Fold these 2 entries.
Entry 1:
Amino acid sequence: MKKQKTIYESALDQGISRRSFLKMCTALAATMGLDFSQTNDVVAAMETKKRVPVLWLQLQDCTGCSESFIRSTHPKTESVLFDMISLEYTEVLSAASGVQVESNLDAVIENYKGEYILAVEGSVPENAGYLMIGGKSAKDTFIRAAENAKAIISYGSCASWGGIPAAYPNPTKAKPITKLIKNTPTILVPGCPPIAEVMTGVIAHIITFGEIPELDAAGRPKAFYRHRIHDKCNRRAYFDAGLFVESFDDEGAKQGYCLYKVGCKGPSTYNSCAEMRWNGGTSYPIQSGNPCIGCSESNFWDNGPFFTRRAKVPGTQISINPDKVGVAALGVTAAGIAVHGAATIAKKKYDEKKRGEEE
Ligand code: FSX
Ligand code: SF4
Ligand code: F3S
């Protein structure tokens, strides 16, 4: 078996300076949502702990989760791959292929029993004959790898809830991984795909504290899934003021108003998009003008239709009448909505007329 280096030693091997190493630890602490004073805990862990062996299984999915992961910016994917973890098996990122990698999978399960982290992307097909990897049933390989892992990270909505492969009519009888394994601690990191830094934050937490992060009732790390998108949304002030986009080409859309009436599921979706944002904090769907489609929630694909106003906040008894929102708090808003509504109707009529003229 290879002698494993500490995470710090691996970083030095990569030519990373002490200064850059400390910067990486600070970024990790921030990603994990730790207090600034806890950065020292992260530094101490990275100086003394060995790189964690990781097996990354790719089941029924679109590879979007891997695509997201390789764009982690805080810390950068290279730091995670080369310093923090020892990625022993991956179908997507592996340079080697065939018997060579498949035998490595067996060797890691054998040699690092109870020590490795299993990252799983995609759902498991229950119907026989679907998804064979290296001539073996992916379901059997998953169960074998899962039973011997220290912890499992269920990466993405497919692994966590079944996702798109489990959507109606679910021809492969796709299942979330939790339906097949009960005894290994499992952390759900849903999203289609999930935010890269959430994955790195979860891995860093396991390395730093030697245990899985605190989870909510659904099995998601609280640090990243404790808020609804709606709670931290950059358009929230417009929701509260009763200012809504009525159609994607109206004046409200240009002004950046709330997207609730065009189907936003932010009020019922738990994820960190509004706080962490995507691509190094650049943006997230709502900021870019697209309603949240609830991609981190169970059955999101069948919970449609998308882009259609919702009468109710699903999963709750709360009905939101957007035309009344903000009225009680601010009497003047009613007039604002009325004017805004009249303008929207006028615009719709104009558009319909214009379309009629063009046809
Ligand atoms: Fe699923 Fe991930 Fe969506 Fe795709 O692998 S969560 S379909 S982004 O890729 O599993
Ligand atoms: Fe943001 Fe959507 Fe909530 Fe509007 S409904 S405030 S766009 S999350
Ligand atoms: Fe998904 Fe909604 Fe975030 S669609 S990416 S959870 S804003």
Entry 2:
Amino acid sequence: MGGKKEKIILTGLRPTGALHIGNYFGALLPFVKMQETADKFFLMVADLHALTTLEDSKNLGQNSLSLAMAFVASGIDLKKSVIFVQSQIPQHSELAIALSMITPVPMLELNPTYKEMREEHPKNNNLGLLAYPILQASDILIYKSTEVPVGKDQSPHIEIAREIARKFNNRFGNVFPEPKTILQKEAKIFSLQEPSQKMSKSHGEKTYIALFDSPDIIREKIKIAVTDSGREIKYDEKNKPAISNLLTIYGLFEEKPIKEIEKEFEGKTYAEFKKDLAEIIIKGLAPLQKKYKELEKKPAHIKSVLEDGAKKAEKIASQTMLEVRQKIGLI
Ligand code: AMP
């Protein structure tokens, strides 16, 4: 590589249940692109992070496997990327303990996402939620990641990771690069029932299209999606938020500029537009659904993908942890 610094990227998702088309355009597809630009790409099923707000862990194991299958089905290439489950690499937790010793509590208390999460999950105001950024710093630093792609809401966490890396290096000697935040352009998709809200699975089945919804369910959800007053199919976020959201979805699936879609549907009714949109979503998700179903039929395959990923991840994580132990004086 002619002395060029390696580009190491870590990212991941929490296995919190059904994925929807917002996750697809906002996370899965960007991950597939990212793997092409990185020298090392680590893609984590963040099951420990899921525990912070979990009310019932009965589906956590299955959700972790499903998420790993969704990564593969959406085009993650195992020759280019390492897919692994966070809890299967014990060094993440081990490093988090070491990093917690140099992390000031007020820095965590001031973290804006802590306040939001506490309000969203009042029953889960646990230490894990407060310490979430330490575990996230550990996820990033254990692979000496140089870049972390995140949405705007997560960027305070990466700032904390940078601060922790700096503190560690100053106090014990250089081990960690300070990871750069790569702000993701957000392709925001909104709820089908309440277009002022981000599409999310926590607002009810009718509000989102799940990646693995059947054609009939997709047709039904689009049919009953709310629209705006008037008749024109026109992108206007302020006055026509519902139609604008449906146009965004159409544009993402068809990879077409919205202006072109508006032209195509000039003089047509909302019902005609929605009918076409449903078919476009069904067609767009079909290859992913087919691949996912094939993976589901051979559950041993995804387990071996994760075993292989864990081996590769642990090799690096254990080297870093050895360095950390030496620097801080653990024998
Ligand atoms: P969540 O499980 O809600 O934390 O979402 C995981 C990731 O999926 C987020 O970090 C975003 O990148 C993406 N995402 C979630 N919801 C949406 C949405 N409505 N529109 C676009 N991207 C989304």
